Amino acid sequence: MAQCVQSVQEFVQDSFVPMVAVLCSDEAERVTRKNNLTFAELLRPFCRLTSEGHIRDPNNQVQVVKNLRICVNNLATSPNAASAALSPTQRRLLNEVVLACQPQEGSVTNAITAGDYNLNFSDHFFKASMPWYSAWRETLLEVSMNEQCTATTPWFETYRENFLQSMPASDHEFLNHYLACLLVVSSTEAVPMEQFLKLSNEQHRVQHSGECTNPKWFIPNTLKYYVLLHDTSEGDEQKADTVYEDMKQRYGSQGCYLLKMNSRTNSSEEDEQIPDPWSQYLHRNNLHSQDTLDDTTVNNATVENSINAAEVDGQDSTEKADPVSNNLDSHPLQLDSGSSSGSLQTLSAAGNTASKKSSRDPESAVGGAGSHGASLTLNDHDRIRQFIQEFTSRGLLPHIEKSIRQLNDQLVSRKGLSRSLFTATKKWFGGGKVPEKSVSEPKSTFGLLYPPEAPELQIRKMADLCFLVQHYELAYSCYHTAKKDFLSDQAMLYAAGALEMAAVSAFLQAGAPRPYPAHYMDTAIQTYRDVCKNMVLAERCALLSAEILKSQGKYSDAATLLIKMTSEDSDLRSALMLEQAAHCFINMRNPMVRKFAFHMILAGHRYSKAGQRRHALRCYCQAMQVYKERGWSLAEDHINFTIGRQSFTLRQQENAVTAFRQILTNDSRQTATQQAAFLREYLYVYKSVIGGNAVSLPQLPLPCIHSSATRVYFGHERRLAEGEKQAATHVSLDQEYDQDLAVMWCNLEEQLAAAANRGIVPSNFQPTQCCLNSQTDNQRHPLAVVEEPVIVEMTFRNPLKVPLALSNLSLVWRFTAGDSFPSKEEATATEETPGETVTNEETLALEGTQKEDDIVTTETIIDFHLSPEETKVARLRLLPHRTGQLNIVGVVYNLAEASSGEIAPSAGDGQKTGDLIVVRGRQDLKIQGPRLNQTKEDKMSVRHGPDRRLDPIITTSMPLMEVFFLQFPTALLCGEIRKAYVEFCNVSAVALTGLRVASTHPQFFTFGSQATTPLTPLSPTSAENCSPYKTLAAESQPGAVATEMLVSAEHFQQLSSVMDIPVEGDTLQPGESVQLPLWLRGPDQEGVHEINFLFYYENTEKGNKISHRVIRHTAFICASRSLSVQASASRSSDPPHHSTEDKGSGGTLVFIDVENINTSESGVREFHIVQVSSSSQNWCLHKCINPARDKDCKLTSRERAKLCFKAKRCKPQQVTSDTMGKYTFADLNLGSERIISSSTPCGDFFFRCCRTSESPSQRGEVSSSRTTSSSKNQGLTSSSENIGNIVRKCNELDLNIIVIWKAYVVEDNKQLILEGQLHVALKTIGKEATSLMPKEEAQEMVLLKFKSEIPLPLAPPSAELSQLIKTNLHYPETYTHPFVQDSLCLVPVTLSLSNCSMAQVDVLIDLRHKSSSPDSVDVHNSFTWVGQSQYKLQLKPRQLLCLTLRACFLHAGVYNLNTPRVLAKPAAQTVLSETSQQTSGPALIIINNNDNEAA
After folding, report:
1. Residue pLDDT, tens place only, 176-220
2. Residue in 1109, 337, 1046 with CA at minimum distance from that of residue 788
3. Whole-number Å distance between alpha carbons of 1051 and 1055
4. Is residue 710 a contact partner of residue 793, using CB atoms and an 8 Å limit?
5. Which residues does 161 contact at the CB level (< 8 Å), separation at least 6?
6. Tens-place pLDDT, residues 979-993
7. Residue 225 in contact with residue 181, Cβ under 8 Å?
8. Cα gap 526→503, rounded to integer Å
């Protein structure tokens, strides 16, 4: 707020000072003009007394007059009566005074302080419940600390001081009437005394002739003070002294003075620096003396408009052109409609003359130039100061004291009369009052005038005199008395004046005996403004009252008072009042920041209308700091738009561009039409700022670029499918980034790198990143290859509701040539890099088109349109031709508003393309890296790491390979085998080697193995149907034995997830391509499967920065159901054969259950099971024991087939050291041809599927057993484990079944034959295995155990120990015996014992036991075993032993011979007892009696 340099008391005192006129002779004027001054101007800097003065009041009390200032003016006459408003000249000069007083740019100013701007809420809950408190406090601190918001407003103080001194004199008060007149005559006059007489008569004529209404005089007997001016440089000092003596004799020593001056000569004291105290006072003389120069009666509003026309820039011209915006009733915050696109063009057209007028020199505005007081010395300054002191203390103050006494005596003499009689006399005779208007008009009007001798005026005159000499108590008493008289007479103008001065006198009284009557001032202001229609007096009253209220801390009342003074008759006054009201709001105890900002906006609007552009700009800037970033988007737009226009008209183009940039970059809620206007204004301003400087392009705000979303792609974009060829998907900018997929690809690449480096991942391994984005690791410089493009994808967003047209988009880059570049740790690498930095900034700025050179080829996008509020990506390319460091700096483009016909046909009236303003600029790409969070310093502060995705290092040439797939399916049946082809093309000029592939599904494909492919001719059927298998013609015969083939697993080298691709010579030369077969097998689980391939290759020359390159491919396979195979194995109950090859095997039966689970939707008509094969190191299928069939097994939908096979152990002589690790493949074909299961692809998929289905423990990873503290428990544990191993091996089968099928599919009225294979792994006898993948079940929650428990000894289950020995009884099914002849029937029975384990077993045979099992059947009576009743035997591993027993029967009947109890235990175990062995079903024998036949 306006904090005055003076105190409020000093300001009020200086507002009302004694007025002294000056009347000079011509010669005296000539003497003073040597100093480029008039006599009144000469005295003005010295008009304040440096010492105290004294007067005596009517009660003879001494009153001290402190710091008294007098006002000295030249005597200027005017025949016009005083008006109720300032003259046009005074208005113009006041406007220039404010215009000339601007805040100094760059000066350090004191910020506004309102306490510490802490909002002290008494209720803590209220404070806590306000979420905006913290933000509001920040705003207050910003307002208080901002240098724009200064603590003082010198332009307001200057305006106020000049306004008060330029007020016209009026008849209702005497404060600005002249009390004295200085008659000045030079000593160089021929007869100085005659000149004094002439001047005295002239003063008398002016005062008493009645010809001139101005100036006005305080009392008829005006003090005349005679001054003899002596020029010491040219006058006769003796003559001057003689004349002065005559003056003292004629006028008295108290009424004259000899003033000597002009002591300085040109030859002397040239180097002495004399201060110039006159400059700051000169304009006041002009304001006061020129108020009579303009005699034409001009309407004030017209004059102010003429001032605006002279001073205002193009904005006012625009307002005149637009009647809506020029309307005084329009809201000050209303935005321009922007219908005229050339609004700023209009501004610039009148800009030159307007700027010259607005930047008028202050010296010219105040009417004087050059040095002042050039002939005066410091002694002359002291003489002038002494002269003012003498005149005031010996002339003026005694004169005022005498006048007060005379007026007091007159008033006291009249107090004897009755007040009522006096009033009645005035009513009867009119009291000598002369109404200004007709008699019929009531007296309540303000036109009532008093004659000079009226007693009410005498009281007012005495009050004014007392006020001028600081006798405020007597002045208040007189004002109060006069106020009552005026109110009783309804003389409202006089009453308002008395009220005003009574309030001021009450405030200025020492000790403050009574409070300041603010209601007096309010009544006076209302009377001046509403009744008397005198805004000048109302404004003076408001200025005084506002300062008084502010000094008492009543800022709210002061603001209300100032706001009431705003009107449409003076924009300058309204602007100043609104600004001061805003400062009042910010200085309250609880600062009202929003009201401050709002009234600053209103003040800026009125400043703009008054032609004060700089002050308007300052007000809007101060208000902006309150509204910014607070959600007041419309207010921000208005303020920024106004700031932009004002700055542009003030030739502050940079500030204008910044303001318009804010409108366009913020999320605006303006209409499309308004935004289009903003955009046109910005483009015009921007273009004017650029001018001819097109080398360095400034930043453009539109469109918005999401720098963090920038993606960089290195390399050529993948080639699309060519005919039947399907290109590898690899990486493209059209793919979305997936963090999980990135980790998967990285793992595959690590496997490939390890496979190429003898199983160890290289220490400097870095995963390949072809596409960089915000989620990738960008801390290292990416590596690009020379002659391979670098594609930058940028995301543009149009925040406006109008379309944008961009053209000639190009990337801005810097390139530093060099072959070696530093590592990441070296911070100063770029300085040591050889080569010179080259950039294309100047080329793009000058030409704006693509320019190819031998370093980097830059691609240009000719047209790029953005619809309203559209987000769109643009891909720009660079093609480097040299190795070195490339830095992508930003993007340069042309910006224009899109024509309505092209983009937005509904946007309104469009313009022709030729009328559109097109500007060229740039935007830099600045990407902030990830926040660091490693060290303590990082966590305590906000630090960001580097992001170098835009700073690639260009390396030397590398091989580039493309991969194509032919006949690659998208849908397969589960287990279906399909043959496809893959083509590898080297499209670079460098040879490649080390071709490998890794996959997430290695069991899905194979390249085959030449070592396992038999050189046998293909069958006609296979050739006709393009079977992927290798087949031989072979008819199936009933009971045929399987064909066996021994194959080593080493021939199938693809046992890991990384495969070497069999390329001839392991090298692919430049331009060479190779096509290889690829066998695919449908996944065993139905659904859509994502198969990922990663192809790896290297450069033949080592040592490059890029060690290898990869190509990604992702295939999606839809797997449909085919067959479900369930298999189980059990020991045969048949008696063992006596052949050596079957000895010990005992005959194992394999049951295979095949079901067609395919749905009819896939078009599969039927399945044929053409072959069942087995693969194992120990077992093989021997023959099919199904009923004999001539044809293979056919299965339609939901049909099931059961197959039974006999398995046997491999021949012992085959298991030698040379054949260790080899697998025996046995084929049992059910059709007319045999498929060689041991060759590609059947064998490949068998090994790959078996590997992926094995658990880690089954792959030989032995888990360590738990250790316990007790040695006894350790022994029990190891013993139990041995038994478990014995039992497990006893039931171990390790037989893999391969079911090969054909499916007949009808597709497009054609029958296709599909082939496939399913795998079932039989691991244990008695356990069923299936080909279907088990469903993953959710793991059950397990309770946590915090204390380790001692493991219990493992007790092998009795069910497993009961299978150590396999028993069979061999006997005749029917036996006939003549019981009549021989009562005992003895039948020989052979008991065969077979050791199924690989350990020695102790066997106990007890024939005394009688079976109690429910399976035992005793049809007749029991029988008994004769001979040895108990046997103890020891069987070697896999040993077969036969015992001959004899059963004795007494009667004919049916008997169950399966009663022997067989107990067994491992021979090495001494602790365990024997376990009863499982027996087969009942062994029934029929005993017939031969007596009936004999009879």
Report:
1. 899 999 999 998 888 889 999 999 999 999 988 877 778 889 898
2. 1109
3. 10
4. yes
5. 14, 284
6. 899 999 999 889 999
7. yes
8. 15
